[in-house]
Amino acid sequence: MGSNTFRLVVFRYRPGGSFQLVDEIRHAVRLSAGAGPEGLHPDALERAGHAANLYRAFCDAAGVDDVAAVTTSAVRDGANRTEALAALSVDGGLDVRVLSAEEEAWYGYLGAVNSTTLTDGHVLDLGGGSVQVSQVTGRRLGEVVSRPLGAVRMTERFLAEEKPGRADIRALRRHVARELEDLDWLAGAGGRMVGIGGTIRTLASMHQRSVRYPLMGELHGYPLPLSGIDDLVEAMAALPASERSRLPGLKQDRADITLAGAIVIGTILERAGVEAIEICSQGLREGLFYERFLSPADPPLIPDIRRQSVMNLVDTYRCDIPHVEHVCALALAIYDELARLGLHAADASEREMLWAAGMLHDAGVLVDYNDHHKHGYYLVLNAGLPGFAHHELAMIALLVRGHRKGLPTLSPLEDILRRRAARSPERPADGDEGTLRRLAACLRIAEQLERGRARGIRSVHMSATKAALKLDVTAIGDPSVALWSAALESPVVQRAFGRRLELGVAFPAA
Which of 100, 131, 163, 282 could form a disulfide with 149 if both were Cys (CB 3.0 to 4.6 A apart)? Predict the structure, then answer.
């Protein structure tokens, strides 16, 4: 129950296994709006009590058996805290906990580090009433600061006019800078910063639309540049608050407070010496969930974010785990053999993308076997894979689509890969198209070798001449169907490596 927005999220999970978000409700309550020396405004408490009662009724109707209800800075700082808690708890119907500033930062940190690969850097969490900045070192929480610089609070104090002037914006920037000036551990720290909260996601959505981002709406993992925030501040400041929702990506219920939030975030990035902030779609509410899901681990940290993300989708899409695991084993063995022969440079990131695509290659069967490679493509792309960068998500989805029928191609995600290529000189010599062809060849051969789903092909060995790639298998039982199926992938191998594919049997498996 935040200072601006109340959010209810529902998770289904198996302790030690997988988890899925199965429902979510969002309501802009504006709990901190109109707060003064006497505490939270009666109108805000009435709105909050109404929303809390609806959420309680939802949990009762849905049979949710474990409810964690928490509230943050608006109630924490309010003079009428007792009255506020009575409204939020629906007269005892909900057990509401008021989080301290440290607890608020802790749960935001858990949400961020359990959904990104952040190891060292900072987490910035901007809400309606306050902002928390947390230092992360070795995935562990370090220094934490909380300041009353939330988007609603700063709007009411500095930008309450329908169209605030330049002097108002400068005053807000000076105020934020003063609040941060004693934080020596933040000043010029640089490195990686992950941002959580509704305001930062709104800014990312606006920026994606302004640059026509190819993965529009995929906010998690999106790098929002400081220069982009500055541009959005200019665009919002040029309009009256009542007209800002005309800007693409800016919701009506956030149109008046996002300008102040953007100024706070931009000023913090400048103080930290960070050129971009990475968007995290998870936050405090997910942090509360991870505490339960990972219990009794202390701290409750997912050991491998990328693996967990893939396995969650494997479970969600009910993939045949023995089959996909065997396809992965064969695909990775082929990849390693090709590296041993010097036909490509072994790369840990490529190998992991191949594994992820192998585990998810049959996800589309959940929709229909016919064209399941196409169904799997959009299922993976739209579900997202927390922990994987957007260009990696694009490559994995393209591999899922390219694991059968036709030759794999970068279209329609070529633009997202081209944008990444422009930012990173560290790319394979044959580019992203070469990477897709090589990894798709490995996956397609492996899939054909496991065509009968009997896991009869136990290992592979490869040799090469200038004209051909020879793949010899060890097998249990008759491998003729597997070899016949794999031979159909010779055009894919020819395109990827400039050699025809030959197959044979080394010796039967013991």
Answer: 131
Q: Is the pTM of this model over 0.85?
A: yes
pLDDT in tens, 131-152: 999 999 999 999 999 999 999 9
Of 236, 255, 285, which residue sits at a domain end?
285
Same domain, 189 and 210: yes
| Nearest alpha-carbon partner for 501 in 457, 459, 465, 471 | 471
Number of other CB atoms surrounding residue 493 within 10 Å: 25
- Distance of alpha carbon 314 from the chain centroid: 17
Predicted confidence (pLDDT) at residue 509 exceeds the cutoff of 70: no
Report if residue 409 sits inside a domain: yes
Does 498 lie in the same domain as 359? yes
Q: Going by C-beta distance under 8 Å and a sequence separation of 6 or more, which residues neighbour residue 509?
A: 458, 459, 474, 475, 476
* Co-location of 71 and 140 in the same domain: no
User: Domain of 327?
Assistant: 307-508
242 and 128 in one domain? yes
User: Could you say which DSSP state residue 365 is in?
Assistant: G
Per-residue pLDDT of 74-86, as tens digits, reads: 999 999 999 999 9
The predicted structure's pLDDT at residue 421: 60
**What sections of 369-510 are H helices per DSSP?**
372-383, 390-401, 414-423, 431-449, 480-487, 490-497
Contact predicate 43/95, CB 8 Å: no
- The SS3 assignment for 326 reads helix
CATH number of the domain within which 54 lies: 3.30.420.40
Q: What are phi and psi of 303, to 5 degrees?
A: -65, -40
| Torsion angle in degrees (nearest 10) through CA of 201, 205, 207, 208 | 130
Domain match, 336 and 396 both: yes
Residues 369-383 as b/e (b if ≥16 CB within 10 A, e otherwise) read eeebbbbbbebbbeb
What pLDDT shows up at residue 422?
60
